[in-house]
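Checklist before submission:
- one chain only
- standard amino acids only
- sequence pasted in full

Submission:
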Amino acid sequence: MYKTYYPKLDEINQKWYVVNAEGMVLGRLASQVASILRGKNKPYFSPHMDTGDFIVVVNADKVRLSGRKAEMKNYFTHSGYIGGGRFESYKDAMDKHPEEIISRAVKGMLPRNTLGRKLFHKLKVYAGPEHPHQAQKPEIIELEG
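Returned file contents:
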């Protein structure tokens, strides 16, 4: 009988990666980032453990959508009060807070539990090309899409 291998906490090697979002399609970028955050690209992936890496996304203001989604996409938020629902168009959200667009897309692809919230904190998104994480010596990776 085979035994299932579970990595020990000291065996998990977490790295920092920088992803340039310039010209990339939002959904494809988000799915690849969520996969790396989760650790699915590693041979010792375990669904109940945090085996993923840290990701810094730069140039979030230059991400694009395919088709006519840029004109049609809306984001919904609710304050919790009666009649407190608000819609925000993609263009308005891009003008006000472009980092939030990538964050929302990635968060929707992570598990909805304590582990998913922990993984989401390992994502850092910045609108411009600069980021304050040079001390971690992140590797620059090219994602497809």
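Reviewer check: The chain has a mean pLDDT of 95.
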